[in-house]
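Methods — Computational structure assignment.
A single polypeptide chain was analysed. Its primary sequence is given first, followed by the predicted tertiary structure written as structure tokens.
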Amino acid sequence: MEVLHSLLTSAVDNPVNALMKGNFIGILVWAVALGITIRHASDTTRVVFNDLSESVSLIVKAVIRFAPLGIFGLVGATFAEAGLSALVGYAHLLAVLIGCMLFIALVVNPAIVWWKIRRNPYPLVLTCLRESGITAFFTRSSAANIPVNLELSKRLGLHEDTYSVSIPLGATINMAGAAITITVLTLAAVNTLGISVDIPTAILLSVVASICACGASGVAGGSLLLIPLACTLFGISNDVAMQVVAVGFIIGVLQDSAETALNSSSDVLFTAAACIANGDVDAQ
């Protein structure tokens, strides 16, 4: 109840106060409200906001390009203080993240596909992982993998009117891997601080993370920048939250690669499942 009360209180905060104090929940709520109302604005206003969005994205990309220098400093300081034993904690966290993503890719997604098409889903699942997931793993960009997914959809015989919409849209908002990253790293911070989390609270965190992941920046490591927002649910300060982000950048290469592979491959997977269920593709 404390987490739910904090969520509701943060959501109705004054927008100026939210910006001044770093209340990310309040900022998100006002951003969504403005996004809905701006639909009725003039074309000039839309162009201005689109240009502002592009400008912010460029700044984020520039900051992330300097991340390796910061990571080098963090890892160097950690080695100086704790030695090689510090890597065990990072490896443990990375194993949890990748394990969760594998569970979604090989258990949860096939279950959803089976429920939709009522046949063995694994041939389709493995095809999407092989043809789309491997490429996305190395490009680390859902947007860059759109042509690969479009070509795969064509080879699978999917309906063009469906995949021509779902693939570009999925590359933007289908961010299951990002939701996992936000949830796991936030829970890691909560566990480190000794905060008790029950199942309903964890589910609430997962829902918030899933919604936030839809707006994750389309750059490598973009999901990590949403961790402070999730941390506000538990009253964790921005200083601590940014330390969690720093840890995320340290393991970011493998984490972001696996995250993008899950995001991109599931775009084709769910598109194919929908087409097969609706009879828009031959059984294959």
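Note: The two ends are 49 Å apart (CA to CA).
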